[in-house]
Amino acid sequence: MKIPDEYIPGFKKLISLDIESQEELISALKNAPIGSWDVGLSNFISQKTKIKSEIILDIVNLLFSLLINKRYSEQSTDKFLDQILSAIKDIKDPELLPSPELKELLTKLLSIKTIETTTKAFELENEREILFIDARIVTDIRPVFDDANSGNISGQLIINTLKLRYKDSEGFKSIYIAVDDKDLSKLKEQIIRAERKIKRINKGMAKVPFIKLKLEE
């Protein structure tokens, strides 16, 4: 196992925390709203602790990465963290030394139910091949000319273009689709139907908490 360079700052900042800050971090994570991700969760923690905001984000990203990798490894927390500490040792950085105290802290952090549940929800959310990011409809009016030479305008045409922004395994992409009035009515109808279904489901399962992920692009 090798620690990616992007997560090394998170380990260093986690190690730099004193006991009081560690306890504050653990308490804040336990009380964090389920579904909060990266920036949102970091902002929550910064409001509940004395830890500097520039430190928190790297630690939060590290914890989510560790939880995801632990689930994929299908190992116990103890064995997984033994591999992590071994990988840290291989880095040979004097500011990043494995220790029983670090393992104990990571064990506590990875066992916090709020971020564990959020991680599971994130994985389920991203199991789909294509994820919707944003949508926009651009409406243009274009003139219709009599012929190529006269230059006389005989009419005008309203053109709607639906821009869908999405994310797949290769990254963020966009697609442009021409739509007319009937298409827009169909889209509106399907959106209203979906919203009604969601309300019925929420009402029928009112006692079961729903997770709404708050992801940052």
How many beta-strand segments? 3
Q: Poorly predicted ranges (pLDDT <50, ≥5 residues)?
A: none
Trace the largest sheet across and list its strands.
1-2-3
Overall helicity: 40-55%
Number of domains: 2
Share of residues in strands: 15-25%
| Alpha plus pi helix count | 8
Structure class = alpha+beta
Measure the end-to-end span. Answer: 28 Å
Please tell me how large the radius of gyration is. 25 Å
Task: Please tell me what the overall shape is.
Answer: elongated
Summarize model confidence as the mean pLDDT: 86
One letter per element, helices H and strands E, the order comes to HHHHHHHEEEH
Oligomer classification: single chain
**Major sheet description:** 3 strands, antiparallel
Kindly summarize this structure in a few lines.
With 217 residues, the protein is α+β, with helices and mostly antiparallel strands. It has eight helices and three strands.
Please give a structural write-up:
54% of the residues lie in helices and 18% in strands. The chain has 217 residues and is of the alpha+beta class. The chain folds into two domains: 121 residues, no CATH class; 74 residues, no CATH class. The chain has a three-stranded antiparallel β-sheet with strand order 1-2-3. A hairpin with a 2-residue loop joins strand 2 and strand 3. The chain is elongated and about 85 Å long. The mean pLDDT is 86.
